Amino acid sequence: MSSWKQLSRLVDGVSLVAKEIYHQSPELQRARNGDLEALGKKALVAATDLVGLTSGKLRSLSSRRSKEPSVVFFDDGSRKGDVTVPVEPEVVAKPTIVESEIVRSESVDEARVEEGENVGVGAEVASTPLEVVTVKRRRPRERKVPSTPMARAYGFFNLGAGLAWGAVKESTYRLVNGTPPTQGNKPALSSILSEENAERLALGLCEMRGAALKVGQMLSIQDESLVPAPILNALELVRQGADVMPRSQLNPVLDAELGPNWQSKLGSFDYEPLAAASIGQVHRAVTKEGLEVAMKIQYPGVANSIESDIENVRRLLNYTNLIPKGLFLDRAVKVAKEELARECDYEIEAVSQKHFRDLLSDTPGFYVPRVVDELSSKKILTTELISGVPIDKVASLDQETRDYVGRKMLELTLKELFVFRFMQTDPNWGNFLYDQPTKTINLIDFGAARDYPKKFVDDYLRMVMACANKDSKGVIEMSRRLGFLTGDEPDVMLDAHVQAGFIVGLPFAEPGGYAFRTNNITSSVSNLGATMLKHRLTPPPDEAYSLHRKLSGAFLACIKLGATVRCRDLLLQVYEKYQFDDEPQDSVVASSSVSS
């Protein structure tokens, strides 16, 4: 019975999206007035797309990727329409093309060349050798970005209908063959959360791009204890990158943002993207002066579709039961809309990147690429090209390197919050690129950078120290001042909240190295999650959404690396130099000095 109830809820959700399409669709409005031909064509395409026979539009069979040369050189006086000299790109060995969108890669290094998202703006994949492992990856597809409200609503309708169809097939299979066994005698997941549906969701988000894909990428770096394993495995495909925007959409954006003579500012431009991310894709180019640059070019329509995208994703998540009750989803959605609106303004990002470059100019081990203003605008951001491997790939290197990178990641996180009060809050592993020869972490993608009020940072540092020192009274007091608690919570909630704080504070609790891989922080916290979700009386403060995303990302990176880090030393180095604005409270830090 539960399966049929879940199907009923999903059908209700799909119907909400269908109503939105009805109100925005010119074809449906014309059909109501008697013109059924256009509606018939749309219905035919939708039906065939649902069962996988088409790719969403009527067209002849052809290669998904352009056969035109990738790299184009420009003469000094070249303008749009002039003859250019095409040069074939450097040949990269690739597997034979197969029909499936999901293929197997023989090595991480080859997968990096294909993935894109792990490279990011300003990044070039380094040639650092890594051990050969088998990974699941997605072959990039060249598809137009749905750029109008109607096209995006229609895309979500197709995705929702596909999930419903997948749930019907999975429920039918279970009725005939029984529920499949699970590892560790865990309860079976809903039929809506089947492996096939998980991959359908991931590929659908990759096609939609924009805020929809951004939400998927945020979920993809979570721990298995928070997101079901089939969904997490499928969302790894989302983290690898989006579908590729074709030249027919790319050139108009370049013309509109940089002028029709944008070619005159470049020596060459590579139409094959280095990365295809949630909001834009990144292309390698060379300026007239010979500087290699990375140009992040925003997908058309994504900035205007943030609100509708997030609402549609919320419907899909609600009807797949991925969002637990008591999560105060409305507040989370409000914050997400505000953050994504800022991320879509590349002029704001350019200012943030320059600020970070200044803040870290004297900090060894970090580098922020410079912005090229003459090739940047509100929807295009150009920076110098840098190299490195995403930090999750550093897990294949030696222990000394992993410990070094883990320490630098935590050092950066603490400095951002407690020294700069200005933080890059997107923990995507592809935003941190390690260059082994120089032992430098190259930092990219500052769209999610933000500042934090001094009073908030003062109280948050006191709370962190209380968690590290297992000071229950200090944790509760600072949590109330910050807005995590109201003061009316029952004892069971207070106990769970304090214990969760102590668990998160474990790395900072004792001097000496903390081994992240042998201590499962995320699993321990998630065991308390059900209690906190049930008894929580207020959503966390707005600042906490971005901050905790970054903090959890830093911890997950250290767990992924298997790093051992002297975390308390790093915290005390910050605490002992910190200047509080208000009068100091009762001491929340035990008298100690930084270990040598």
Describe this structure in words.
This protein is of the alpha+beta class and 596 residues long. The protein has 19 helices and 18 strands. Strands 1, 2, 6, 7, 8, 9 and 11 form a 7-stranded antiparallel β-sheet that branches. Strands 4-12-14-15-10 form a 5-stranded mixed β-sheet, with no helix packed on it. A hairpin with a 4-residue loop joins strand 14 and strand 15 (440-443). The longest helix is centred in the N-terminal third of the chain and has 29 residues, at 149-177. It is globular. The model is unreliable at 44-64, 77-121, 125-135, 220-225 and 585-596 (pLDDT under 50).
Fold blueprint:
Elements: H1 2-24, H2 26-32, H3 37-50, E1 71-73, E2 85-87, E3 102-105, H4 108-115, E4 123-125, E5 135-138, H5 149-177, H6 195-208, H7 210-220, H8 229-240, H9 247-258, E6 266-270, E7 275-276, E8 280-287, E9 292-298, H10 306-319, H11 329-343, H12 346-359, E10 366-367, E11 380-384, E12 386-390, H13 399-420, E13 422-424, E14 432-435, E15 440-443, E16 449-451, H14 454-468, H15 472-482, H16 491-504, E17 514-515, H17 521-535, H18 542-561, E18 564-565, H19 567-575
Parallel strand pairs: 4-12, 10-15
Antiparallel strand pairs: 1-2, 1-6, 3-5, 6-8, 7-8, 8-9, 9-11, 12-14, 13-16, 14-15, 17-18
Approximate shape:
globular
By helix and strand content, what is the structural category? alpha+beta
* Overall strand count: 18
Q: Strand fraction band?
A: 5-15%
Mean pLDDT, to the nearest integer, reads 74
Largest beta-sheet details: 7 strands, antiparallel
Fraction of helical residues: 40-55%
- The end-to-end distance, rounded to whole angstroms, is 62 Å
Discrete helix count: 19
Question: Ranges with pLDDT <50 over ≥5 residues?
Answer: 44-64, 77-121, 125-135, 220-225, 585-596
- Rg is 25 Å
